[in-house]
Amino acid sequence: MSTVPPQPPTPDASPPSPPSPPSPAAAFCAAFAANRGALAALIVFALIALAALLAPWLAPYSPIEQYREHMLTPPAWQAQGSARFWLGTDELGRDLLSRLLHGGRVSLGIALASVVLSLVPGVMLGLTAAFFPRWAAPAIMRLMDVMLALPGLLLAICVITVLGPGLVNTVIAIAIGALPGYTRLARAAALGELGRDYVSASRVAGAGTLRLMFSTVLPNCLAPLIVNATLAFSSAILETAGLGFLGLGVQAPTAEWGCMLAAARDYIARAPWVVTLPGLTLLVTVLCINLIGDGLRDALDPKLRRLS
Fold first, then answer.
1. Which of the residues 42, 117, 192, 245 could staple to 262 if both were Cys, CB 3.0 to 4.6 A apart?
2. What pTM was estimated for this model as a whole?
3. Exposed, middle or buried, 41 (CB in 10 Å: 0-12/13-18/19+)?
């Protein structure tokens, strides 16, 4: 009688592989979304920017068209308001809603252009000072120190005094005032990366100076530069409004939030909405950008991300 040989034991199934770590982009989005204040600020600012971008189609009237029979008309929700002008009119009978929309288009455009105009040369000067510490760094950094001796708004006023008021000159003045901050930050970030192993390996592999600057070191310096650019964007909006309030920035009849505040300051008691609405719009916009900057800082910094 034949016996069946015992079967070898079946090997256990291999344990499941651990889940792969999320990509850097997914980790950044998750960390930013965890900050509810920054996420809400991003949504509000996106609505403001979209309304400013679509101002020619959303505005019910031209921002410079005057309705003399409706001067200083209250908003529609007040007793003496008119449903024709939802947010009322200013001292010349111009629709406030239309001017706020077009003013946001001007203010945000000036701020964005000034940030780009200062960020690009500031990064290039900072990298040059970091890679050439003997002959380039002393001249560049001493020039930045001289520029930092004046506050940003005061330096912008000096530049406007030389160039003259106007939209383009406002962009140039604000960009010059913000240039030292980007230069010093880019230099400090680059100096922190130059001593790392991956930079030494790139040098040994034969990478040239330009490749080390823009392909090796710069991508690892972007996090603080992005955060600084975000916060400088809100500062540029305030400086644009400040120059417009002083009569040195965008000139009338162009709609701009600072110019609107300057024109309405004589009507604070008689028509408070003329001052309140542009001021609130400016306040909410700058607050949203600052909250977004804080959220970006927390999401881009791995140490803060681990603590949260």
1. 245
2. 0.86
3. buried
